[in-house]
Amino acid sequence: MSLVEIRGLTKIYEKEGVEVPALRGVDLDIEEGEYAAIMGPSGSGKSTLMHLLGCLDRPTSGTYILDGDDISRLTDNQLSNIRNKRVGFVFQSYNLIAQLNLIENVEIPLFYMGWPRWKRHQKSLELVELVGLGDRLYHRPAELSGGQLQRAAIARALVNDPRLILADEPTGNLDTKTGKEILQIFDKLNQAGRTIIVVTHDAGIANSSNRILHLVDGRLVKDEVTQGVSV
User: Which of these, 28, 29, 69, 67, lies nearest to 45 by C-alpha position?
Assistant: First the structure.
């Protein structure tokens, strides 16, 4: 069974009384352990598809089955539960809380899952060490570089042991060298069996994945296998 199964997925937004289609009948399967990139021009539906995959929104029609559960039919509370337990997000803007230090930011998903403090700290510490930030545990976001912030965001995305990792332009705010370092982390995670989907406009970044999905005007127009060569 595929980890992600999408059939006839559509999403229509209404703006000032006018219907604006963002996705127009997308069919897609993602197997467990795949590393896929979603590409397309501005307005192609990349972000909309990412939001639907991450259970941040519901489709207008069609079905989305994640790990055997039909996401299209879940309540808001059930969607929230799926997000907390099965999906890890890495955003271009990091989305870290300025008032919390690094380890506290990484712990946030576990806090909402009801883990005791000692257990949250232990698990988060393992992930912080994994991304190479063991010497920055008590630094706040303002005291970290862009690369360190993104490493922290990756640790937070992993802390709930998600079935699916979603990354939206994860190197967009980083210099070339730091961006390569972040992609190397994704490579290692994928080699360890993690399922990763990245949204990017950068062909070089997409080529570090094993599969590129091309969206145009809300339609999946091309699905190609790559060699997974890191930039």
Answer: 28
Per CATH, domain 32-56+81-225 is 3.40.1360.10? no
Whether pLDDT at 230 is above 60: no
* 8 A C-beta contact, residue 123 and residue 76: no
Share of the chain above pLDDT 70, in %: 97
Which pair of tokens denotes residue 46?
């990349």
Burial class from Cβ neighbours inside 10 Å (0-12, 13-18, 19+) for residue 53 reads buried
Which tokens belong to 158?
């992993």
Q: Which residues of 21-52 are buried (b: 16+ CB within 10 A; e: fewer)?
A: bbbbebebebeeebbbbbbbeeebbbbbbbbb
> How deeply is 177 buried, as exposed, middle or buried, from its count of CB atoms within 10 A (0-12, 13-18, 19+)?
exposed
Higher pLDDT, 199 or 93: 199
**65-107: per-residue pLDDT in tens?**
999 989 888 888 888 888 888 999 998 888 899 999 999 999 9
Burial of 97 (0-12, 13-18, 19+ CB in 10 A): exposed
**Strand order across the 69-70 sheet:** 18-30, 4-15, 61-66, 69-70
Is pLDDT of 54 > 90?
yes
